[in-house]
Write a structure and sequence with these properties.
InterPro entries: DUF4179, DUF5643. The chain is about 10% helix and about 45% strand. The protein has five helices and 23 strands. The radius of gyration is 21 Å and the shape is globular.
Length: about 350
């Protein structure tokens, strides 16, 4: 079917899932909406794995069906109604528009953005197999970033019709000495997709390779420290980009605390002076080079709401035995940041 035929379709007559009128309207916006953005430079090169000890992968992908499938256009909008952090994704992300078909499944990467710390990729799937209500990429085939020594993150896949799904992956690569590059080279080679509602698993041969330039942001040096009950927490920086707000931090815990509780992980409650809630007890990625005594990490969330003049960041330490046998929470004093006028 051509793009013109797609555009001439009566959306209300499509054979879709049983959805609400609001959801129908969202799908209709995706089919009819047009965008224009600066294309991204695609690189066809090997990329080393972001997982320590994993093998490097070389991927090649070529633009084909992706730019001709209206349901794939602006995938992020299927998620942005639920996640305020994706509000500006469409405007500042790069068009990837790559697709490959293998064993009855077409995988299509729509857009991606690199905010200097985190990478977000939107993609879509069209399949002739019945995966049911929910499906996932079979582990451990994650996104590989050249030069990274590790990574953390997650993804979600949402069903939008009997044969189509949209996905969103957000991950944070970690580089030696926290030296984040201006350009990241990414490879994604999923080997199989599995159903979460039946026993179906389909293997295939998909491989994508592309690069992203870092978004420019305004960096605020903070270096504010709060301390309580053997935990020393320093908020180092806040970076404001067009799509996100990123905080970096370092924490140190005492030997006495680690002897009793071998894990100490911060989560955050982040609000502003207007009452907007950005983070409600969520954490981000990080690394420790000395078994948890010190921990360097990042957490990101959406852009700051207009009119806010202060950002309130409260760290809460979750210290545990790692065995599920018990944990406690240590609330640290909130750190109040005056925002630029």
């Amino acid at each position: 079917m051509t793009k013109k035929e797609w555009l001439d379709l009566d959306i209300d007559q499509l054979e879709l899932l049983d959805v609400t009128e609001t959801e129908k309207a969202r799908v209709k916006r995706h089919v009819l909406k047009k965008r224009g953005k600066t294309p991204i430079l695609r690189r066809f090169a090997a990329a080393s794995s972001i997982f320590i000890g994993a093998a490097a992968a070389t991927g090649f992908a070529f633009p084909s069906l992706a730019s001709q499938l209206p349901f794939m256009d602006n995938v992020i909008q299927f998620f942005s109604d639920e996640e305020a952090r994706y509000t500006n994704f469409e405007d500042f992300s790069s068009d990837i528009n790559l697709s490959q078909t293998s064993n009855g499944i077409t995988v299509m990467i729509d857009n991606a953005v690199y905010d200097g710390t985190n990478i977000t990729v939107s993609y879509a799937l069209e399949t002739e197999h019945d995966f049911g209500e929910a499906m996932k990429v079979k582990a451990p085939y994650w996104f590989d970033v050249a030069g990274a020594i590790g990574s953390g993150g997650g993804d979600q896949i949402t069903r939008i019709s009997n044969t189509r799904y949209v996905g969103l992956a957000t991950f944070t690569p970690h580089f030696k000495d926290d030296a984040y590059p201006e350009t990241v080279k990414i490879t994604w080679s999923p080997k199989a997709f599995t159903s979460m509602s039946n026993n179906l698993e389909i293997e295939g041969d998909w491989s994508f390779d592309f690069s992203l330039e870092r978004l420019e942001g305004d960096l605020l040096l903070v270096n504010r420290t709060v301390e309580q009950e053997d935990v020393n927490f320093t908020l180092q920086t806040i970076e404001f980009t067009d799509v996100s707000t990123i905080i970096t931090y370092e924490q140190t815990v005492s030997d006495e605390l680690l002897a009793k509780w071998p894990s100490a992980t911060p989560i955050f409650r982040i609000t502003d002076n207007l009452g907007n809630v950005y983070v409600d007890e969520s954490s981000g990625g990080g690394v420790s080079k000395n078994n948890g005594k010190t921990f360097n990490g990042t957490t990101d969330f959406g852009t700051i709401q207009s009119g806010a003049s202060q950002l309130i960041i409260q760290p809460v330490e979750i210290v545990s035995e790692l065995s599920g046998e018990g944990h406690i929470e240590i609330e640290l004093e909130p750190i109040v940041i005056d925002l630029k006028k």
